[in-house]
Amino acid sequence: MDQIDKIKESFDIDIVTVKNTSDLEQLRVKYVGRKGLVTNAFSLIKDIPNQDKPKFGAELNKCKNYIENLLTEKKNGFGESSQSKDALDLSLPGRKQFFGRKHPLIQVEDQIKDIFRSFGFSVEDGPEIETDYYNFEALNIPKSHPARAMQDTLYITEDIVLRTHTSPVQIRVMENTPPPIRIIAPGRVYRRDTPDATHSPFFHQVEGLVVSDTVTFADLKGIIQAFAHRMFGKDAKVRFRPSFFPFTEPSAEYDVWFNGKWMEISGCGMVHPNVFRAVKIDPQKYSGYAFGMGIDRIAMLKYNVRDIRLFFENDLRFLQQF
Ligand code: PHE
Asked: How many C-beta neighbours within 10 Å does residue 221 have?
């Protein structure tokens, strides 16, 4: 009986030092495991006089229950807190962080904006859903004009379109700003084109407009040359080809030579007097030039991308290269 008391006493001392579930497991093995102190004590029964056996057995069982209950109680006490401590496994590898970056077209747009800002231009914005008036009429393209066929338009209603170019921003700016004017207007434009390597139903342009009492076609050529050199380096060449746009006269298309090939960038020309009249600027007093730029084309030329659709498919294998 003394022995049982000793086991109990030593257990009472041990149990207060337990700090976690593995300490607890050690105690369980020490006392009630297969070779534990209590388990061993049961083998003493055979040496005890018969009349004392029941009392001893009962006392030992009480001791065993006492120990097992306390072990369980302690274990439940650790419960959640010890579990969540185990769940924080500092040896696990860290989670990979993915850093985003600007889309290549936005990167190119940002470069274009920086270059023109350094030339003294400010950046303007206009709606992508436009009225027929701003997209066509005010730009000297009346309803019957064959030039409307030049641009396959996505109509929302008879009078509302998805803008086919950024030129309507010219009108919006001239309506609100007296000359001198020196702006660019980047943005998305839409045409009813079937997608292929060089066509997409939406793409990106930058409009340029300069109005003052002195500007000439030479200024227009100069600014486009200067832009090409800044964008593509000193070896880039620019060529102008006579062309037609209803809102400029004379008009030209221009190409940039870079990486061993010519790429058509867009059109340009001197602001047509009818456009000035539409915004109530006196064509006798002022002159102006305007130009467009295809951002997607510039990006294709700069990065040697052969298919415009790659810009819009969101394939990370493509986008991560920029
Ligand atoms: N808006 C014309 C186009 O999209 C380009 C252009 C802009 C031409 C400005 C002349 C002046 O094709």
From this structure: 16
Q: Region 99-112: what's the mean pLDDT?
A: 95
Question: Is the pTM value of this prediction over 0.85?
Answer: no
Domains in the chain: boundaries: 2-87, 104-319
Would you say 303 and 322 are in contact if contact means Cβ atoms under 8 Å apart? Answer: yes
Angle between helices 53-87 and 2-16 (to 10 degrees): 10
Q: pLDDT digits over 287-303, tens only?
A: 999 999 999 999 999 99
76 C-alpha to center of ligand 1: Å? Answer: 77
Q: May I ask the CATH architecture of the domain 104-319? A: 2-Layer Sandwich (3.30)
Q: How many CA atoms lie within 13 A of 12 on its CB side?
A: 8
- The pair phi, psi for residue 204, each rounded to 5°, is -130, 135
- Cα 107 to ligand 1 centre (Å): 22
| Ligand 1 lining (C-beta closer than 6 Å) | 165, 167, 245, 248, 266-269, 290-292
